[in-house]
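Pasting two entries for a bug report.
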Amino acid sequence: MTSVTSPLAGRAIGLAAVPDPVFSDAMVGPGTAIDPVREPSEAVSPIDGIVVSLHPHAFVVLDSEGHGVLTHLGIDTVQLNGTGFDLLVAKGDTVTRGQAVVRWNPADVEAAGKSPVCPVVALDASADALADVVLDGEVKAGDALFGWR
């Protein structure tokens, strides 16, 4: 089972609480979401793998078993055109769990009128493929969010 850990510190709120139906209805895939602490921070890789997609507001890491995990930094943050996000790796890089991928400030995202809530999604997975999904409570970067069978 692949263990997926939190890419940042905050409060787990579950996908149903994400203010975007693409995530709240799990159209992208199952998982959970983090309401991040409102301070400058680094979003870290939730698994060991290869960065297969990288944008200022979102990244996907693919592990050796073919599991892709999407970390989306805020909702509608693509509209910020990269402002306030610093990429710390490149697409194609191999990363380890806990390695910094993007530097950002959730408070700036909120000040720009966007939700800083961060979905963490198991791509191309069914809901029953996940176990022990954390839907509430405080989490630190690196804490377990769910297992992927």
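Entry 2 (this is the one that rendered wrong in the viewer):
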Amino acid sequence: MLILLAFIIVFHITSAALLFISTIDNAWWVGKDFSTDVWKVCVNITNCTVINESNSEYQSVQAVQATMILSTIFCCVAFLVFILQLFRLKQGERFVLTSTIQLLSCLCVMIAASIYTNRHKDLHESHGYPSEILNGQYGYSFILAWIAFVFTLISGVMYLVLRKRK
């Protein structure tokens, strides 16, 4: 049982780390001499422009920013609730609250990645960036966001099924 508990804790911390990295790092859309994320666009690595309200797609960017931050917060809160429930629940009770919070985290990261998938081209076109930015590809932060989605989904279901044992 101790090994299972250690695995669950490591799995949850890994999910949180993936969410932090994908939210913070500047690699959602990359190309030869540029990289973009939900916060800024960098051309030639040194020339960075913060995405601001002058962009007509700013509301889409704000939605992605907000849901990624919420997903990270929910994941961290779920971990704290899990630790509290671990010592407070009676034997045989389920970690329903932890599962619910973790599944909310899963939902938020899915919404963020889906919005970005749908709107990233409009985002770059409306801001007037060079055409080479439109010819990029999804970066590792974007891929980590989808992997975090899978991890948080598995973790949320795992907490729902998990019963406290001796």
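Dev reply: Rendering is fixed now. As a check, the viewer should reflect this: The longest strand covers residues 40-43.
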